[in-house]
Amino acid sequence: MYRQIFVSPFGNLILSIPKSWYGQEIEVIAFPVKETLNAPNSPALISYRIAENRKKREENSRKYSVSFSSLGYKFNREEANNYDE
Questions:
Q1: What are the residue ranges spanned by the domains of the chain?
Q2: Model pTM?
Q3: Which of 7, 22, 53, 64 is 20–30 Å from 77 (CA)?
Q4: 41 or 58: whose pLDDT is higher?
Q5: pLDDT of residue 85
Q6: What pLDDT shows up at residue 55?
Q7: d(CA 85, CA 35)
C-alpha cells in the first residue's frame, strides 16, 4: 500500500508510483481529508501555505507593477554606458 496526502491549490496533480508497480493494474482512490490540515507542520499544510503565498505574491506583482514606458521613460544604453562624463 502506498499513501500520500496532497494539497492541490491549482486543481492538477501528478502522481508518481513505485517502479515495482509499473505494468500492473493499480487503484487510485481520492477523497478530501480535513484532519491533516490541523497539524501545524504537516506536509499538506506546508504545501498549501506555499501555494497561497505564491498566489498572493503574484497578485501583488500584478497590482503594483509599473510600466516605465507609459510614464515616458526610455532607456538610453549609450547614456548608461558613458562612463567618461
A1: 19-80
A2: 0.36
A3: 64
A4: 58
A5: 65
A6: 92
A7: 66
pLDDT band at 35, cuts 50/70/90? low
**Cα Dmax for the chain:** 74
Q: Which residue has the cell 487510485?
A: 28
Instruction: Supply the DSSP string of 57-72, one letter for each residue.
Output: HHHHHHHH---TGGGT
Across residues 49-57, what is the average pLDDT?
90
For cell 498566489, name the residue: 55
The set of cell numbers assigned to 65 is 507593477
Q: What is the pLDDT of residue 23?
A: 93
Q: Which of 48, 46, 50 is nearest to 58 (CA)?
A: 50
**How is 23-50 classified by DSSP, letter by letter?**
TS---------SGGGGSTT-HHHHHHHH
8 A C-beta contact, residue 8 and residue 48 = no
Given a contact cutoff of 8 angstroms between Cβ atoms, the answer to whether 17 and 2 are in contact is yes
